Amino acid sequence: MSQQENLPFDEEYYQPPYKAVYRESIENAEKFWRKMSEELEWFYPYEKVLDETNAPFYRWFSGGRINISYNALDRNLKSRGNKIAIYWENEKGENIGLTYSQLYNEVNRFAKVLQDLGIKKGDRAVIYLPLMPELPISMLALARLGAIHSIVFSGFSVQALIDRINDAKAKMVITTTHTMRRNKRVELKGIVDQAVEQTPSVENVLVIKRNEEPVMKKKDVLYQDLAKRTGYKKVEVEETSSTDPLFILYTSGTTGKPKGIFHLHGGYGIWTYLTTKWVFDLRDNDVFFNTADIGWITGHSYIVYGPLQAGATVLMYEGVPDYPNPDRWWELVEKYNVTVFYTSPTAIRSLMKYGEDWIKNHDLSTLRILGSVGEPINPEAWRWYYKNIGNSSLPIVDTWWQTETGGIMISATPGLGNYMLKPSANGLPLPGVDADVFTEEGIPTNPREKGYIVIKRPWPGMLAGVWNDPDRYIKTYWSKFQGVYYPGDYAVKDEDGFFFILGRADEVLKIAGHRIGTREIEDILISHPAVAESAVIGIPDPVRGETAVAAVVLKQGYTPSSQLRKELEDYVKKTLGSIVIFGGIYFVSKLPKTRSGKIMRRLVRSVISGQTLGDVSTLEDETSVDELKKVIEEFS
Ligand code: ATP
Ligand code: MG
């Protein structure tokens, strides 16, 4: 697999200061973080860089006072007041631009409304909004008051919303009437109305009016009414301590029941600020387009908190990439002169099928860095992205991180002069990230030997815990290996220190004594001309330990047949070796995925082994599971 074939491992791509900065961050950690933390504004200096007294509940910059909303807005007012902070556009092409000072005013007005409704430091509010400007505005307003937000992705339905409101014991829900998706109205307030019947902690629902009159219920208050009365007044910022919670956010639920991760003002603030600069190299004339929804960590950290603290301009798009046409994103890149573009492998795969003609009519020459996040990017998608969007010349930062890590952990770092990319690799650890790969016994692997990725020391962006569940925090992340953070991913590290993520640790296949990451087989299947997407799992086999089973989505123009099944088996064997024995290849029209687009292999496994499905609260489309059931029944 020579995915980044045009960008060889070459010292030329590897300029200072990455190496020196990384070394300093590890060898002189205390001094390093003191220096880095000076780039943001503190109300009161911290005592300790890292407080380990209650490990593994590590606390960063304890004793200090800092507020992330202040650092995103007030701090940028003087030098960047008239610079655009947020461009927003919807499907129809309606758009606005908010400068830093306009955003500051909106956030203060929103904060005043919240304050008048009794929201204060430590209170929790759930935000259930689409990608509209009031989403970042309400986040920043809550943070300004020291209140804690928990954003529920607007695609989630009633039960997920109820669970998250009750877990946080939220005092308020912030919502709007609807959003538009492919020119169809998607109801939001109706879902909130149902949810609040089962969430006793909610005192108010703050409803933001769009272009229709909301039907008001008992607890509802209309934002526009209150805002008109309030006007634009400055609201004193809460001088939160570094270790005060900023938000709760649930993981994607790819491997099990979502975990309610929470992050703090200080460490998370510094980590998102620094990683934005290191990875995306944002400078003053950059326009950053991150296609993620703010309902996921990628949007929290790299639409809102990182870029705004860094004083950048971000573009927010409320819509899907292929409506009205599959060139919607490229239209936006051209229109706003986007320079840094960040998306996911699943989005790239979905756009690939429309062909390159949709790209050719657009001038994408302002782009200078491309990024990927969410899942391993398979070589087919990488090549397409590199060639068609990157004009075969732009670096692709393949950023590995998690809701739990707060920000990017492993990636190339153009902002530190490190553009170096290798076939299929995510890259090198960011400064402060002491990453390694361990064997089952907790010993570092040899180069190119597979194992579990681990982080051997705390870093500022690390999760503070699992909300309401300290035991789950310890069990999930700090129990596999003594004193070491366990992310739950499978990986290798090569002799140059590059990391390659091979999939989820609990989805590794064990075939005839060999361990194979799901990614390894899936990458090969997708490189076959007939295959669009695949999900591979292992099922027990009395002789070989496990055999591989694949659910495969074919590209347009190909039809399922036993001949094609045989061809795919042979194709994988030819590439990976004859150890890979298939227990079945099932052709389906779609894979079970989370609402953020990640493949849910555990559901493929449950269906194939006839077990109960487990938590399906984040499953995007239930018919994917039904179809798979049917295909398997027909086959056997
Ligand atoms: P859950 O923890 O509930 O199962 P999740 O792990 O998908 O869900 P997220 O925090 O959204 O929740 O995703 C983090 C995971 O996504 C990582 O642990 C990793 O498996 C995968 N991932 C993210 N970025 C990359 C990347 N660039 N390359 C490979 N894998 C990635
Ligand atoms: Mg996870």
UniProtKB/TrEMBL annotation:
CDD domains: ACS. Plays a role in the autotrophic CO(2) fixation pathway. Activates 3-hydroxypropionate to its CoA ester. Can also activate propionate, and to a lesser extent acrylate, acetate and butyrate. Residues 18-72 form the Acetyl-coenzyme A synthetase N-terminal domain. It catalyses: 3-hydroxypropanoate + ATP + CoA = 3-hydroxypropanoyl-CoA + AMP + diphosphate. The gene is acs. PROSITE patterns: AMP_BINDING. Residues 74-459 form the AMP-dependent synthetase/ligase domain. It is an enzyme of class 6 (ligase). Residues 520-598 form the AMP-binding enzyme C-terminal domain. It comes from the Archaea. The keyword Transmembrane does not apply. This is Acetate--CoA ligase. Signal peptide: none annotated. GO terms for molecular function: 3-hydroxypropionyl-CoA synthetase activity; acetate-CoA ligase activity; AMP binding; ATP binding. GO terms for biological process: acetyl-CoA biosynthetic process from acetate; carbon fixation by 3-hydroxypropionate cycle. Gene3D superfamilies: 3.30.300.30, N-terminal domain of ligase-like. Belongs to the ATP-dependent AMP-binding enzyme family. Its EC number is 6.2.1.1. InterPro entries: Ac_CoA_lig, ACAS_N, AMP-bd_C, AMP-bd_C_sf, AMP-binding_CS, AMP-dep_synth/lig_dom, ANL_N_sf. It comes from Acidianus brierleyi. Keywords: ATP-binding, Ligase, Nucleotide-binding.
